């Protein structure tokens, strides 16, 4: 149906309409039972504070619906007013995408959606998307069950499960999104629907890797696992110069592809500032979920090929002890407030078929040992093991989910905060990380097929379509045009034209 031509007298009213648009919107969005914050309200600044204080955004409103119908109604109002609508779950997006990633979005905070319903006999759990990872781990642990996910207890399941969800159990159990059975969601037109392998299968595919561009998930049904009986968190550390650190990274690359490496071995290389210019602190940190007596023999081939250790610690316990230890804080997020940071982060997913060569590794370690030593930032880099032998992540067929990276060896996270974790962010911090990633890619073979991780989203990634979504972008775009033609769920690095 074509829109009706406006009667001439309505044009006279147009300037008045624009003038009063803000108050109209406010009254349209003032819904019984839904708390809200509008610009100028006390509490608006708190409600719009990003986790990354590098971003200050001004949404048109932040609303806290309590029911799916209220949420759907808000989406319809947003669409009718040509607003971009954004869900916020844990608010931990690196680029404030829970606030829409740019000014003027309508934010739907999921905080009231905190139900968790566990069915121990089917080993499934329906988790509403206002929940944080720490609270989810506690709730599942009451049943002796667990889900693979990241370590920070305050991260929300809404963003985490949309884009990946990596933890030290992921080589054994896959990413968080690999364990989704179905998703209840609201579409851009306000329809309330469900997606699973049988219901809206195309949408189900898209939601697991690019969810925020397609809908607002209200609850997610997961298959969950019996918790491992014992977990040992291990931390080995070396102080190495550039050449030795570059070699050590290769030693790790060779170690992880040995066919016998068990899936119960989850690990990352942690790189931090060295004690002197020209050195780096090189750590192997991870969690062992198998028979405790087999950890040493599993790591032995790696240690044998490395220089002598500077330090090692083992922290053993049961499953929830390990989750708690890795969190470094309380898992119950209502018992203590969250923190904020001011930072820039990047990621690089290395292809297993073409591990980092010597020139790339040397450029990487050189950057850390010199530019990193004098950098006006506090930084850490994590070389997370996604692949290697027997990895569940890479056993999933590439086309099974929109998450495209099923043949990466590592996801390297580059993370640099301002020194006092507060604004302003120093310009040199951008240059430091851009130089590092540039040093790795420019020293790699032409056409090196690297990716970037959507959960470590960055605002300055120019080739984001290729790096985040790869060969899946065209299929995602076709579906986006069908389900959200007016871009209700658009944001700066999402799926759009
Ligand atoms: C301290 C810290 C530690 C981290 N550790 C890990 C880790 O160990 N492993 C790992 O994989 N990642 C990790 N991350 C990254 C984290 O997974 C992402 O930042 C994640 O997207 C955050 O989700 P959120 O719900 O908290 O964020 P939000 O900012 O609320 O949301 C992120 C994006 O998802 C969208 N979204 C949120 N809820 C919904 C919903 N219900 N439906 C549809 N879209 C939604 C938002 O609109 C936004 O685009 C970490 C992040 C931080 C800050
Ligand atoms: C600020 O917002 C947080 C949630 O993001 C909330 O828990 C807290 O109570 C708010 N503080 C105030 C003073 O309103
Ligand atoms: C959003 O608006 C605020 C306040 O006007 C401004 O400081 C900020 O730079 C804007 N952000 C973007 C991404 O435009
Ligand atoms: C959450 O669970 C409670 C109790 O089971 C129920 O009353 C409520 O409707 C649920 N909330 C939602 C949003 O489903
Ligand atoms: C967290 O603690 C609060 C009380 O402070 C309690 O009501 C809640 O059930 C706890 N949550 C979990 C997941 O254990
Ligand atoms: C929205 O829901 C209605 C009624 O359930 C259905 O007829 C329609 O096809 C749905 N539209 C979309 C885009 O899913
Ligand atoms: C620097 O690295 C060298 C070579 O790996 C090592 O022998 C030395 O102990 C390191 N020095 C410091 C202070 O870390
Ligand atoms: C494992 O090796 C460490 C040294 O890396 C040693 O301290 C520990 O006793 C060993 N544990 C077992 C069970 O052999
Ligand atoms: C380092 O950055 C902080 C802000 O994060 C700034 O206050 C300080 O002056 C900077 N120092 C140098 C030496 O650049």
Automatic annotation (TrEMBL):
This is Glucooligosaccharide oxidase. Coiled coil: none annotated. The keyword Lipid metabolism does not apply. Transmembrane segments: none annotated. GO terms for molecular function: FAD binding; oxidoreductase activity. It comes from Mycena albidolilacea. The keyword Signal applies. Pfam families: BBE (PF08031), FAD_binding_4 (PF01565). It comes from the Eukaryota.
């Amino acid at each position: 149906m074509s829109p009706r031509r406006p009667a001439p007298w309505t044009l006279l009213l147009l300037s008045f309409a624009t003038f009063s648009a803000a108050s109209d919107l406010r009254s349209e969005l003032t819904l019984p039972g839904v708390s809200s914050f509008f610009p100028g309200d006390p509490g608006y600044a708190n409600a719009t504070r990003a986790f990354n204080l590098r971003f200050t955004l001004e949404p048109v409103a932040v609303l806290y619906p309590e029911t799916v119908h209220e949420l759907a109604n808000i989406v319809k109002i947003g669409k009718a007013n040509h607003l971009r609508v954004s869900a916020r779950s844990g608010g931990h997006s690196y680029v404030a995408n829970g606030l829409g990633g740019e000014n003027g979005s309508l934010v739907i905070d999921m905080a009231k959606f905190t139900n968790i319903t566990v069915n121990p006999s089917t080993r499934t759990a329906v988790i509403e998307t206002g929940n944080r990872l720490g609270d989810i781990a506690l709730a599942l642990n009451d049943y002796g069950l667990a889900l693979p996910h990241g370590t920070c207890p305050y991260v929300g399941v809404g963003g985490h499960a949309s884009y990946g969800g990596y933890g030290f159990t992921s080589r054994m159990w896959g990413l968080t999104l690999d364990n989704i059975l179905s998703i209840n969601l609201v579409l851009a037109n306000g329809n309330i629907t469900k997606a699973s392998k049988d219901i809206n299968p195309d949408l189900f595919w898209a939601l697991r890797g690019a969810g925020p561009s397609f809908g607002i998930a209200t609850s997610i049904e997961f298959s969950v696992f019996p918790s491992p009986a014992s977990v040992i968190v291990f931390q080995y550390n070396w102080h190495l110069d550039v050449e030795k650190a570059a070699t050590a990274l290769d030693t790790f690359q060779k170690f992880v592809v040995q066919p016998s490496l068990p899936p119960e071995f989850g690990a990352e290389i942690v790189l931090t500032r060295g004690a002197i210019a020209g050195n780096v602190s090189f750590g192997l940190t991870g969690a062992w979920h198998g028979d405790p007596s087999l950890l040493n023999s599993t790591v032995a081939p790696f240690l044998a090929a490395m220089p002598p250790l500077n330090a090692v610690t083992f922290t053993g316990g049961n499953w929830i002890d390990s989750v708690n230890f890795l969190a470094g804080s309380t898992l119950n997020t209502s018992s203590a407030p969250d923190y904020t940071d001011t930072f820039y982060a990047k990621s690089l997913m290395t292809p297993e078929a073409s591990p980092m060569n010597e020139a790339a590794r040397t450029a990487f370690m050189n950057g850390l040992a010199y530019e990193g030593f004098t950098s006006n930032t506090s930084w850490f880099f994590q070389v997370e093991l996604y692949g290697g032998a027997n990895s569940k992540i890479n056993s999933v067929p590439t086309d099974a989910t929109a998450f495209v990276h099923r043949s990466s060896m590592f996801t390297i996270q580059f993370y640099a905060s301002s020194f006092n974790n507060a604004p302003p962010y120093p310009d040199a911090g951008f240059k430091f990380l851009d130089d590092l990633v540039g040093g790795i890619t420019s020293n790699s073979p032409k056409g090196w097929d690297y990716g970037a991780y959507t959960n470590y989203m960055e605002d300055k990634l120019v080739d984001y379509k290729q790096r985040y979504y790869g060969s899946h972008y065209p299929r995602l775009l076709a579906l986006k045009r069908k389900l959200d033609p007016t871009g209700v769920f658009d944001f700066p690095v999402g799926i759009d034209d």
